[in-house]
């Protein structure tokens, strides 16, 4: 059985997504040093953190945990559809400010069934702030 190198995977995904360690740590509500330990392999994120990270990086938990060193079957077309090997980087947020990146990450980590309510709340707050001007 091959060892999954989750630490390397997390670092690669974070960099490709345009996040800093500090931004990811804020989203996970942990210290930056704790997240840094995940990336260097000193500690392992718990299951709930892995689920949030998969959402933030816009991939499935299976893709996050996938062992990239395993050989692909002969039936494989050779085209990788996962995040790291060719899928359009739908998590690309380099052009956003640090606060915007954090907002996107937090939104992705938010439970799916509550995202609509969250957006409506933000829209109401914006409308109310414009009305009070």
TrEMBL record:
InterPro entries: Cro/C1-type_HTH, Lambda_DNA-bd_dom_sf. Keywords: DNA-binding. This is Helix-turn-helix domain-containing protein. SMART domains: HTH_XRE. Pfam families: HTH_3. Signal peptide: none annotated. Residues 10-64 form the HTH cro/C1-type domain. PROSITE patterns: HTH_CROC1. It comes from the Bacteria. GO terms for molecular function: DNA binding.
């Amino acid at each position: 059985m091959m060892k999954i190198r989750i630490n390397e995977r997390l670092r690669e995904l974070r960099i490709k997504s345009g996040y800093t360690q500090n931004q990811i740590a804020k989203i996970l509500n942990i210290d930056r040093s704790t997240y840094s330990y995940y990336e260097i392999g000193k500690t392992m994120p718990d299951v709930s953190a892995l689920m949030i990270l998969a959402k933030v990086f816009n991939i499935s938990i299976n893709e996050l945990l996938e062992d990239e060193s395993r050989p692909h079957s002969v039936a494989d077309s050779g085209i990788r559809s996962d995040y790291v090997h060719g899928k359009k980087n739908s998590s690309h947020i380099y052009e956003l400010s640090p606060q915007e990146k954090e907002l996107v990450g937090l939104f992705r980590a938010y439970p799916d069934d509550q995202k609509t309510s969250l957006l409506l709340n933000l829209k109401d707050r914006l409308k109310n702030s414009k009305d009070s001007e």
